[in-house]
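In this supplementary section we document a worked example of the pipeline. Step one takes a protein sequence of length 100 as its only input; no multiple sequence alignment statistics are reported here. Step two produces a three-dimensional model, which step three serialises into structure tokens for compact storage. The input and output of this example are shown verbatim.
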Amino acid sequence: MGQAISVTIGEHFFRKKGDLTEFIRALVDRYQIGDFLNAEDTKFCLTLFESHTDYPKKLAPGVARIQLLIQEEGSRGFQIHKTDGTSDNISWTDCVANRK
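The serialised model returned by step three reads:
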């Protein structure tokens, strides 16, 4: 079995990526489909999203807010509403997998 990889996201420290995954699942579960994230959760997610394979393109030209929606594959995930009026889905699992 591999060695646990600790992860820090903003002010949050996780002893291993599995703890980060549990934290995000709990965050997602606090919201209903269609809800927008509060300021604290938005700040956390914006830092998390820096690990996305398409960052910073995914977040350009800026993020106005983040919404919880059902993704194409049927899972609960995030949609970024951008400052230019466009929106884009973003995979938090991609962010966790790429976090070092």
